[in-house]
Amino acid sequence: MVYAADIGGIIISSLNMEKIFTAFPEQNPNPVFCVSPDGAILYCNHVSKVLFKEWCYEQGESVPGKVAAAVRDPHMHGSVEITTGGRLYTFTVVPVSGESAVFFYGNDITEHRATEERLEHFSRIIEESINIVFITDFDGKIEYVNRMFEKITGYRREETVGKNPRILASGETTTAQYKVLWDSIKSGKTWRGLFKNRKKNGGIYYANGFITPIRNGQSGITHFLAIQEDITEKIAAEERLRYLKEYDRITGIINRAYFVELLESNLSDLKMLGDSAVLLQINIDDFKLINDSYGYSVGDQFLKNFADFLKDQVKELDIVYAPPRKTIIGRLGEDEFALFLFARNEREGRNAAETIRQAVERHRFLNGMIRITVSIGIALFPEHGTTCTELLSRSSAATVHAKEQGKNRYSLYRADINYLKQAHAILEEKQRIIVAMEKDLFIPWFQPILHLLSREIHHYEALARLMTPDGTLLPPSSFIPTAERYGLISDIDRIITEKTIKKQAELLRAGIIISFSMNLSGKHLGDAKMLRFLQTVISESGANPDCLIFEITETAAIQNMSSAVAFVKALKEMGCKFSLDDFGVGFTSFVHLVEMKVDFLKIDGSFVRRLPESKRDRILVKTIADMARSLNIKTIAEFVDRKEIIPLLHEFGIDYAQGYFIGKPSPLFSDKI
Predict the structure, then answer these.
(1) Are residues 201 and 244 in the same domain?
(2) Is the pTM value of this prediction over 0.70?
C-alpha cells in the first residue's frame, strides 16, 4: 500500500519518501556505514568505501578493531575516533532500535583537532610565559590572567577576574594619560609604553609592554590583550649605575663629571641671556692630616659632614640672593668642592666666599671632633672665562694663590697669579719627558693580578716608569699629566706597549707563558695609526695575542664610539682581550661595557680599600660584581692592600685581585704572593 503525506503543501508519497531517505546516506559527504552485532559490514556509503579500502576491508567482512569494540559495547552509544590516510575521523555510534544493526555516522575532524591542539599549545605558552599576560573585555573588565601576573602583582586569579586593571594603578598616571591609552586601543591601535604599577602588598613594579585589540570575525573589537615584561630589577640597576655615574659615593653630591656637564649646559644659556655668574672652588686646608690622624673611615665621614654643611650654606645664600636658578654644588676631587652661583657679580661673589669661609672656620665638624679652614678661589663669568675649562682652571689658580698667601682666605683670579712659575715648572717636566723618550728611559714595571679562586697569578699589569739619567725612578704621577697636556702620552703608550708585547714574546720563546695587561688611553680608541702599530708589533714580535690585555683608561676621551668599537673589535679578532679601568668613578660609562664587549672590569680602588669598614662600599662592590657577572664580564678589584679584604672579595664573587697585598710593581715576575 502506498501512503501520501502533505508536507508544506507538497504531496510526497511513501514510496518517494523511501527513495529520499535511502539516498540520504549515499549522498552524505561524510562516511556512514552500518554494522551487524557480530561486526560484519552491512552497508557503507561511497565515502566509507574509500576508508574501508584504505583499511583493507570489504563489505560483508568484519570491521576494524576499534569499530568492533564499539559494537560490542553493551550500551551501544558514544563515539569512536579512527585515524586513516593522515586524517582523523570521529564516528557517532547509533544502535537501530528493534534491529540487529548499529549505524556509524562519521565526521572528518582533522582540522578541528589541529586547531584545538594549537589553541591548547598557545594556552600553555601564555600560562607559562615569563611575561605578565592578561585579557580584558571591551569595557576593561579582566577576564584572564596568567601565572606570572599572579606572581608579580600578588593578586590571585579569582581576585582579579571581573575587576578593572585600575587595581594596579600606582597613582602617578594622570586621568588624561589613561584617556589617551583607552582612546588609542579602542580605535584599533596598539599602545606601547612603560607602566609603573602597584602590587597587592603596596610595592611598586615597572613593566614595559603593550596593549592590543582582539577582533572578532567581523573586525569588531571584543577584547584587549596586555603583555608586560617586568623590568623592575633593570630599572633599579640603571638607577644605581646612573647614581654611580653622576654622584659622588662618599658625599652624595654630584661628582666632577656631572658638575662639568651641568656647568657647560648652564654656560650656554647664560651666554644667550647675557647673565653673570660666579664659580667658587673650595679647597679644604690640610685635609691629608685628617686622614693621617684619624684614618680614612673618619676622613670619609668628615667629607660627608662637610658636604652637608656646604649644602646648608648654599640654601641660606640662595634665600638671601633669590637667584633665578639654584646654586650647583659638586665635589671636584678628594678635598676640592665647587659652587656655581647664578646672577652674582664680583662683590656678591666675594661676599659669598667670605660668608662660607667664616662659617667653616666657626663650625665644629663630627660632633666637635674636627675644626678646619678652607681656601677659596673665585672666577667670574664672563670676565675670567666663558667656558667650563677656563673657569675651572682660573678658579683653581686662584685657590692655589689663596693657599700660597697663608690659607683660610679667598682669592679672586688675576691674570698674573703665579703663572710664570707654573709655566716654567711645566716646561721643565715637558723637556724631561722628551729627553727620556730620546734616551729610551721609559720602562715597564709589572704588578701581579691574582686569580682568587685558584690562588695563582693570572697576569701582570705593565706600569710606566721613568728612569732619570741619575738612576732615579719616577712614578706615573710625575709625568703623565704633563704628557697628556702636551700630547706626548701617545708616544709613552707606544713605548710601554711595545716593550711589554716584546717581553711576552721573549718569555714565550723561552717556554714561559705569562699574560700582560697594558694601559691604553681612551683617546687612542679609533686612532687608525695606533691600531696598525699594535697589530704590527704583535705580528712581528711573535707574541701570543691571547696573553695580551689592553686596559682602557679615560673613557670620557673617546670621541667616536663607533670607531672605538671597530678598534676594539679588530684587536679582539686577533685574540687580544680588553679591560675597563677604574669602573664606578670618573668618566666610566655602562655603554662602554655593552658596546665594546670588554672582557674584564676593574673596580676602582676607592671602593675596595675600605671594604671591611664601609657597609656602603660593600653594597656598591657587590652591585658592580652582580652586574658584571650578568654580562659575563670578569671583575678585578684594585687597591687590595690587606688580607682582611680577600674574604669579602670571595663573598661577592670577585674574580681577581690587585694591590700591594698581592704584590708591588717590580721589574721581576713571581707566581707567589
Answers:
(1) no
(2) no
- pLDDT, tens digit, 9 for 90 and up, residues 62-119: 677 767 777 776 555 577 887 776 788 888 888 876 667 888 888 888 777 776 777 6
Rounded (10°) angle between helices 232-246 and 256-273: 80
665 falls within a domain: no
Neighbours of 650 (CB within 10 A): 12
Note whether 325 and 348 are same-domain residues: yes
**How many CA atoms, within 13 angstroms, populate the side-chain half-sphere of residue 589?**
14
- Whichever domain contains 212, its CATH number is 3.30.450.20
Query: To which residue does cell 654656560 refer?
Result: 267
Taking the C-alpha atoms of residue 659 and residue 48, their distance in angstroms, rounded to an integer, is 87
- pLDDT score recorded for residue 166: 85
C-beta pairs of 612-616 under 8 Å, 24+ apart in sequence: 612/644, 612/645, 612/648, 613/296, 613/297, 614/297, 614/300, 616/249
Please report where in the chains the cell 703663572 appears, as a residue: 419
Q: Name the nearest CA neighbour of 134 among 196, 231, 233, 210.
A: 210
- Whether residue 285 lies inside any domain: the answer is yes
- The β-bridge partners of 328 are 340
Residue 248 covered by a domain:
yes
What is the distance of C-alpha 158 from the center of its chain? 36
Q: Using CB atoms within 10 A of its CB, is residue 541 exposed (0-12), middle (13-18) or buried (19+)?
A: middle
Number of domains in the chain: 4
Same domain, 27 and 136: no
Domain, as residue range, for 132: 128-230
Q: How far apart are the first and last CA of the chain?
A: 118
**Which three-class secondary structure state does DSSP give residue 479?**
coil
The DSSP result for 319-384, as a single string, is HHH--SSPPEEEE-SSSEEEEEEET--HHHHHHHHHHHHHHHHH--BTTTTB---EEEEEEEETTT
- Scanning 187-279, the segments in alpha helix (DSSP H) are 232-246, 256-273
Q: What is the CATH number of the domain that holds 530?
A: 3.20.20.450
Whether the upstream peptide bond of residue 382 has omega within 30° of 0, thus cis, is yes
Q: Are residues 477 and 617 in the same domain?
A: yes
Query: Are residues 392 and 410 located together in one domain of the fold?
Result: yes
What pLDDT, in 10s, does the model give residues 226-242?
Answer: 888 888 888 888 778 77
Helices (H), 378-511: 388-404, 419-438, 480-485, 489-509
The DSSP secondary structure of 540-583, one letter per residue, reads HHT--GGGEEEEEE-GGG---HHHHHHHHHHHHHHT-EEEEEEE
User: Tell me, what amino acid is at 154?
Assistant: G
Look at residue 668 and tell me if it is in a domain: no
Report residue 376: phi and psi, to 5°: -125, 130
One domain for residues 516 and 600: yes
| Residues 194 and 254 grouped into a single domain | no
For 528, how many CA atoms within 13 A lie in the half-sphere containing its CB?
A: 0
245 and 220 in one domain? no
Please tell me the distance from the alpha carbon of residue 392 to that of residue 381, in angstroms, as a whole number: 11
30-68: b or e for each residue (b if 16 or more CB lie within 10 Å)?
ebbbbbbeebebeebbebbbebbeebebeeeeebbeebe
The per-residue pLDDT for range 358-393, each reduced to its tens digit, is 999 999 998 888 899 999 999 999 999 999 989 998
